[in-house]
Amino acid sequence: MNFHRWEFTVEEVAREALVYLPASAKAQATPVVFVFHGHGGSARQVARNIEMARHWPEAISVYMQGLNTPGQLTDPQGRRPGWQSKPGDQGDRDLKFFDAVLAQLKKDYRVDEKRIYATGHSNGGGFTYLLWAERCDLLAAVAPSAATTRYINKLKPKPAMLLGGEEDALVRFAWQEMMMDAVRNLNGCVAESQPWDARCKSYASTNGTPFVTYIHPGGHAFDRGATPKIAKFFKEHSLAALTGGE
Predict the structure, then answer these.
(1) Does residue 246 lie within any of the structural domains?
(2) How many domains does the chain have?
(3) Using an 8 Å Cβ cutoff, are 39 and 74 in contact?
(4) Are the C-beta atoms of residues 71 and 39 closer than 8 Å to each other?
(5) d(Cα 211, Cα 160) in Å, to the nearest integer?
(6) 139: Cβ contacts below 8 Å, ≥ 6 apart
């Protein structure tokens, strides 16, 4: 895959992202998927691990690079790159970075504003939750992996896929299970699941905001078999469908 390295200056701080652009992105409305690395990771690393560009080549894929920041579970000195974990943290530097990248995409390409998505792993999954809370109206669906949030009260119903490993010793799977229950309830989903894909269960919603789980037998590392499932889930949802628009 051919990635473009984009550079930004956000409030006098240099930022960068790797962007995959389909050849048709200037000519026709194109979905956008934002992908966020975990704490200590990088845009290049997550582009290799969460290969959204390979599994959905018709969409624009954006792999943003975090800045050094204290981790909630590791790296309290903030010597490795990551993402803000709560609203207002570090002056909302990462939310502003997201806004800048999306604005540039809309300026230069035909972005389908009904089909913008976010996914991320670990700290990147936490930032996906933060986008859900703070930029909810922009996103058609989300898929946080190996992550939880303290801000469930700030979330609005939204098609969501949550991914987790049963042997996760960092973000304990018991915490993730509680998060799954909370999101299922938030989305107004039924208690009984239906098979959806390998390792996936789907919970129907009377609100049009279904919930899917992807549970694998591994630990904290991202399960690379999940990427085609995330792409499949995103393809099924758009803001138009949620709002009743065309």
Answers:
(1) no
(2) 1
(3) yes
(4) yes
(5) 5
(6) 116, 117, 118, 131, 132, 158, 239
Tell me the C-alpha distance between 97 and 120, whole Å: 16
Helix (H/G/I), strand (E/B), else coil: 235: helix
Contact 164, 181 (CB under 8 A): no
CATH value at residue 83? 3.40.50.1820
Question: If DSSP codes are grouped into helix, strand and coil, which group holds residue 120?
Answer: strand
Task: With H, G, I as helix, E, B as strand and everything else as coil, classify residue 28.
Answer: coil
pTM of the entire structure?
A: 0.95
Going by C-alpha positions, the residue among 145, 130, 23 that lies closest to residue 87 is: 130
Q: What is the pLDDT along the chain (246 residues), one digit of tens a residue?
A: 789 999 999 999 999 999 999 999 999 999 999 999 999 999 999 999 999 999 999 999 999 999 998 877 777 887 899 999 899 999 999 999 999 999 999 999 999 999 999 999 999 999 999 999 999 999 999 999 999 999 899 999 999 999 999 999 999 999 999 999 999 999 999 999 999 999 999 999 988 999 999 999 999 999 999 999 999 999 999 997 655 544
Interatomic CA distance for residues 241 and 196, integer angstroms: 20
Domain of 102, in residue numbers:
3-239
**3 state DSSP class of 106:** helix
How does 120-144 read in b/e, with b if 16+ C-beta sit within 10 Å? bbbbbbbbbbbbbbbbeebbbbbbb
DSSP-derived pairing of the beta strands 111-121 and 194-197? unpaired
Residue 7 lies in a domain: yes
Rounded Cα gap, residues 199 and 183, in angstroms:
18
Lookup: tokens for 204: 């129907």
